[in-house]
Amino acid sequence: MKTTKILVTSILVLFISIFIFSCNNGRLSRSTAEKLIKEKISKTEVKELYLGETQSSDQVYTNLENMGLISIKRYYLGGISGMELTETGKQYLIENKNRYNKTFKISDLDFGEITGIVEQDGSNKAEVNYTLIRKNVTPFGKAFGLNEGAFNNSVIFIKYDDGWRIEE
C-alpha cells in the first residue's frame, strides 16, 4: 500500500514537472531564437558583383582595380567597356553566375549574442535583435568599406502551431 502511494506520488510529480518546464506560455526564448538564427545564417558572407560593360564610375570598381583584384578596360570618353578578374581576384571567387555576374567571399561571420526580443502584442510575431561578428574581411570586403568587428542585425520570427520560425 505504502509503495503504491509513493509510486503514484512520484508519477504525479514527474508529470507536473514536465508540464511546468515545457510550458513557457508560447513565448520565444533566447535559446530557441539563437538556435534558429545559427541554423539560418551563413558562416561566409558573400557579395554579387557585375563585371561587365557599364557607364558607372562606382568607387568600388576603382577600389578593386587599385587593389589589383580586377583590370578595367575603359572607353575613350568614359565608362567601362569591360572588366576581368586578376589572378589575385580569382582566389576570392565563389561562383560564376554567368559571364558578367560573379559572387565573391567578402568575410566570415560568427554569431555574437541575442540582444533583445520584442514580441508584438496581438500577433504571433517577435522581432529578435542580435549581433554578428565579422572577421577575416577579404580585399573585396574592404573595397566595399567593411571592417572586422561586431554589428547589429534583426530578424522577425512568426509563431506557428508547431513553434517559432524565421520569417522568409
Name the average pLDDT.
Answer: 84
Helix-strand topology string: HHEHEEHEEEHEE
Structural class: alpha+beta
Number of helices: 5
Rg from alpha-carbon coordinates: 26 Å
Gross morphology is elongated
Q: Could you give the count of β-strands?
A: 8
Percent strand: 35-45%
What is the first-to-last residue Cα distance?
Answer: 58 Å
Largest sheet: 6 strands, antiparallel
Can you tell me the number of structural domains? 1
Helix content: 25-40%
Pick out the low-confidence regions: 17-23
Write the layout of secondary structure elements.
Layout: H1 2-22, H2 30-40, E1 44-50, H3 59-66, E2 70-74, E3 80-85, H4 87-90, E4 93-96, E5 101-119, E6 125-135, H5 139-143, E7 149-160, E8 163-166
Antiparallel strand pairs: 1-5, 2-3, 4-5, 5-6, 6-7, 7-8
